[in-house]
């Protein structure tokens, strides 16, 4: 039974027609936000796009020699940028799946403990609202060679102490642990919301069909949670590609002890602030933008495919 | 498979309005013959779903025993009971196609893929959904979804099929169709079936036996025909039948039943003390009318044509009742006529307890 598409556009859930008049109020309500958005996001964005194509741009005079792909050619030829892309991708590929798996375990566990759910949810939200500088300080202590909890912990298993923040071999690991940890709260909260949206009747039905908890987890819970898992993964990926502040707090503004944690955003910052190559900075921002845009499109596509209900 | 239920009780932690724990099923004993269709009937909240969920093993019992044939299954989990369950809202897995839904119970049992698809397809043909195997549940109509739910319940060859109000989400026409479908599928598969409904007409039209419940207590368990002709108490007589059975309040005297508001007597014999407050209940088709001298006087209020008959609304003393008479019968409102009661379909109950006297 396919219904023919209606000609008149109406608001969702009501049958009120959309007219110019009915739009005035919502427009006014959103105006203050829109003004902010245009001034601080849309305008700079357009400027950045233009900037990335301006060749030999001078910050002080505002002069440039013409539009072209020079900036892009420059960053692609720059081994620093390629390295930044590589280490950022590596970081994303480690942090996002691991934090997703951990969050899934924790969320499923939390979801089955009905009693203290409110308390747990608050506790897990804490990292989100705590200042990242404070967290950075705490992590620097955790990673401390002599007194840090991490070294104490691996010491229990008889492993030698590690210079978490200074040893080049472990800097990626330390930044990933921090990244995974800081991703947990947001991910857990979203997964919990997703879990609570699953109608328990499916669990009952599966039990009646003879399924055990394991079968239910893999055949019912995971597939029905898939839209949330995908959405959260993509959001996490976007934020992981922009990794920067964790470097700042852990290494005091340097990209790792031997500049080995040089990420794309750090490259951008470096180009802009230290080297004054605004065009290159803008071009690298555009590359990052395209990467993130691809993921957004992907998420839109997949979420349409995993909509089982309507 | 024969199902035996002994003193089955389910208490919930929640409290009713008197602060007592809710007893959803109260000391219920019954035996369901193999291969029959049993309707669990009763008003909303009487414990039908609770009863069904205990049979399926989803809900643990508080006390009592359930036997499948001679095996005690009271403490077995659902997967060990070999029951198929159809939910009120079907509960089809939304992310699986029709075929995957039907295959799921077999997949859980680790039946090889080829075999489970073959079995699923066979069941799908039986319930007439083999055209839709690759659709998602959201792409099916209510009736089709219901067939899938039945197929999913039947595919593992359950020894007991349990259906919880499977027709309540369908429109009136489809409901009638699916009712017959369920009956056909049940006959074809020969599986013992328990069918929950709160619609007495649905129950009487589909089942071999009816269990009628009220507030967790079984009121009557008998063959479907008998429950109409031979109700155990006033609640049963009132619940079963359309139109609802006529009820005349009055007093039992040595010569019969004296309705309130008149001195005339309806002759009826029962083993009750004189002066007992009683209710005479009479099916509409057991009330006959004449313009002669036989019977008790009644005043015509109104009449409605129901095709070949008149449905008459009359007063006997303070009591109002309804009955049928021939369409060519000439009647005018306010007219006084005579009413007689047949033997069949007329019962006498205690006014307070609803206990049946005759
Ligand atoms: N999980 C539960 N916890 C507490 N009380 C419950 C629970 N499930 C059911 N009850 C109570 O038990 C009684 C019987 O419920 P049940 O669902 O068996 O009724 P039902 O006959 O199926 O009704 P309906 O026709 O509305 O589906 C009700 O009073 C209900 O409130
Ligand atoms: Mg119910």
Mean pLDDT of chain A: 85
CATH architecture of chain A: Orthogonal Bundle
Helix content of chain B: 10-25%
> Which stretches of chain B of 5+ consecutive residues score pLDDT under 50?
none
Q: Count the beta strands of chain B.
A: 19
Radius of gyration of chain B, taken over Cα atoms and rounded to an integer in Å: 25 Å
Name of the CATH class of the largest domain in chain B: Alpha Beta
Choose one word for the global shape of chain A.
Answer: globular
Strand content of chain A: under 5%
**CATH architecture level-2 label of the largest domain in chain B:** 3-Layer(aba) Sandwich
CATH fold title of chain A = MetI-like fold
Would you give an account of this structure?
The complex is a heterodimer of chains A (310) and B (358). With 310 residues, chain A is mainly α. Chain A has a single domain (79-305), classed as MetI-like fold. Chain A has twelve helices and two strands, in the order αββααααααααααα. Chain A has a two-stranded antiparallel sheet with strand order 1-2. In chain A, helix 9 (213-241) runs antiparallel to helix 12. Chain B starts with a strand and ends in an 8-residue tail after the last strand. Chain B is elongated and about 80 Å long. In chain B, strand 16 and strand 17 form a beta hairpin. The relative contact order of chain B is 0.12. Chain B has 358 residues and is of the alpha+beta class. Chain B has two domains: 3-239, Rossmann fold; 246-350, OB fold (Dihydrolipoamide Acetyltransferase, E2P), CATH 2.40.50. The structure holds adenosine-5'-triphosphate and magnesium ion.
In a few lines, what is going on in this structure?
Chain A has 310 residues and is an all-alpha fold. Helices cover 71% and strands 1% of the residues of chain A.
């Amino acid at each position: 039974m396919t219904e023919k598409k209606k000609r008149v556009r109406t608001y969702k859930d009501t049958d009120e027609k959309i007219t110019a008049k009915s739009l005035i109020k919502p427009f006014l309500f959103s105006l203050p936000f829109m003004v902010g958005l245009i001034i601080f996001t849309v305008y700079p964005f357009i400027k950045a796009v233009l900037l990335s194509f301006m060749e030999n741009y001078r910050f002080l005079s505002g002069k440039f020699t013409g539009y072209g792909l020079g900036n892009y050619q420059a960053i692609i030829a720059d081994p620093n940028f390629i390295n930044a892309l590589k280490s950022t991708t590596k970081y994303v590929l480690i942090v996002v799946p691991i934090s997703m798996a951990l969050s899934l375990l924790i969320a499923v566990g939390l979801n089955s403990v009905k009693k203290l759910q409110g308390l747990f949810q608050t506790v897990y939200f804490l990292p989100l609202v705590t200042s990242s500088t404070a967290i950075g300080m705490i992590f620097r202590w955790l990673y401390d060679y002599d007194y840090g909890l991490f070294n104490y912990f691996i010491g229990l298993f008889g492993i030698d102490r590690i210079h978490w923040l200074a040893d080049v071999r472990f800097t990626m690991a330390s930044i990933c642990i921090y990244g995974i940890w800081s991703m947990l709260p947001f991910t857990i909260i979203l997964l919990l919301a997703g879990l609570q949206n699953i109608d328990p009747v499916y669990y009952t039905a599966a039990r009646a069909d003879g399924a055990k908890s394991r079968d239910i987890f893999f055949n019912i819970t995971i597939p029905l949670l898939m839209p949330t898992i995908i959405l959260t993964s993509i959001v996490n990926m976007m934020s992981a590609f922009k990794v920067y502040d964790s470097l700042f707090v852990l290494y005091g503004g340097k990209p790792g002890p031997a500049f080995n944690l040089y990420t794309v955003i750090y490259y951008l910052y470096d180009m802009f602030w230290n080297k004054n190559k605004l065009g290159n900075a803008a071009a690298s921002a555009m590359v990052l933008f395209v990467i993130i845009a691809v993921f957004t499109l992907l998420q839109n596509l997949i979420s349409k495919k995993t909509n089982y209900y309507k | 498979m024969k199902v035996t239920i002994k003193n089955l009780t389910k208490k919930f932690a929640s409290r009713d309005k008197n602060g007592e724990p809710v007893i959803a099923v109260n000391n219920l004993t019954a035996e369901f013959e193999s291969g029959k269709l049993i309707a669990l009937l009763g008003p909303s909240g009487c414990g039908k779903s609770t009863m069904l969920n205990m049979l399926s093993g989803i809900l643990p019992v508080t006390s009592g025993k359930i036997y499948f044939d001679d095996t005690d299954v009271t403490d077995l989990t659902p997967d060990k009971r070999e029951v198929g369950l159809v939910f009120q809202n079907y509960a089809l897995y939304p992310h699986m196609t029709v075929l995957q839904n039907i295959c799921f119970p077999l997949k859980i049992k680790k039946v090889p893929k080829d075999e489970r698809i073959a079995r699923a397809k066979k069941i799908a043909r039986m319930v007439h959904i083999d055209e839709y195997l690759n659709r998602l549940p959201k792409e099916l109509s209510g009736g089709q979804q219901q067939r899938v739910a039945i197929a999913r319940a039947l595919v593992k060859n359950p020894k007991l099929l349990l259906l919880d109000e499977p027709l309540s989400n369908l429109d009136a026409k489809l409901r009638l169709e699916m009712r017959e479908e369920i009956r056909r599928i049940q006959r074809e598969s020969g599986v013992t079936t328990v069918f929950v409904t709160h619609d007495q007409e649905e129950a009487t039209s589909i089942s071999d036996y009816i269990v009628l419940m009220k507030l967790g207590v079984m009121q009557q368990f008998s063959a479907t025909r008998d429950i109409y002709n031979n109700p155990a108490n006033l609640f049963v007589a009132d619940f079963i039948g359309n139109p609802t059975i006529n009820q005349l309040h009055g007093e039992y005297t040595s010569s019969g039943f004296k309705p309130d508001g008149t001195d005339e007597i309806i002759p009826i014999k029962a083993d009750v003390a004189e002066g007992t407050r009683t209710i005479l209940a009479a099916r509409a088709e057991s009330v006959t009318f004449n313009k002669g001298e036989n019977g008790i006087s009644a005043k015509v209020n109104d009449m409605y044509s129901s095709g070949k008959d008149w449905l008459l609304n009359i007063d006997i003393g303070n009591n109002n009742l309804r009955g049928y008479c021939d369409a060519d019968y000439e009647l005018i409102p306010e007219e006084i006529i005579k009413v007689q009661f047949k033997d069949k379909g007329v019962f006498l109950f205690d006014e307070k307890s609803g206990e049946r006297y005759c």
